[in-house]
């Protein structure tokens, strides 16, 4: 499943997206503070990580911008097939096993997802198609 959503209204301040913009069990890529970030969702829980694999610091997404997720449990690096848990970004299989993704703290309010340290008026932009569900 691929998800690409319109940017939040200016009145949304620094909202990264609506919770429902992130497919349940899938991912959405956005830019925050000029860095690509992957948002992962399972039910009401959302996690965010920099889009950078700890193995050679390459992006996790495929050439077309999709981030592969499996069974709402793990995301996979498109370049080295490393698997990372949603809950803590820990690599559980692959060349960087034991390493973890860099987390981006989040907060939710009124159905919107924000970076925890975001300031009003700093609305980030979406970065194209951003999810895949397997």
From TrEMBL:
Keyword vocabulary terms for this entry: 2Fe-2S, Iron, Iron-sulfur, Metal-binding
Spans annotated as Disordered: 115-134
Residues of the Rieske domain: 14-115
PROSITE patterns assigned: RIESKE (PS51296)
Residue ranges crossing the lipid bilayer per the database entry: none
PANTHER family recorded: PTHR40261, RIESKE DOMAIN-CONTAINING PROTEIN
CDD domains: Rieske
GO molecular function, one term: metal ion binding
Species of origin: Achromobacter insolitus
Name of the featured protein: Rieske domain-containing protein
InterPro entries linked: Rieske_2Fe-2S, Rieske_2Fe-2S_sf
């Amino acid at each position: 499943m691929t998800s690409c959503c319109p940017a939040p209204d200016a009145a949304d301040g620094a909202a990264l997206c609506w919770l429902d913009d992130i497919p349940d069990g899938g991912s959405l890529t956005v830019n925050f503070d000029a860095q690509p970030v992957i948002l992962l969702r399972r039910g009401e829980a959302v996690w965010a990580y920099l889009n950078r694999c700890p193995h050679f610091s390459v992006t996790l997404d495929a050439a077309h911008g999709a981030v592969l997720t499996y069974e709402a449990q793990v995301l996979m690096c498109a370049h080295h097939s490393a698997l990372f848990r949603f809950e803590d970004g820990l690599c559980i299989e692959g060349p960087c096993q034991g390493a973890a993704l860099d987390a981006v703290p989040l907060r939710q309010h009124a159905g919107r997802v924000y970076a925890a340290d975001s300031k009003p008026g700093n609305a980030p932009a979406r970065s194209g198609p951003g999810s895949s569900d397997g």
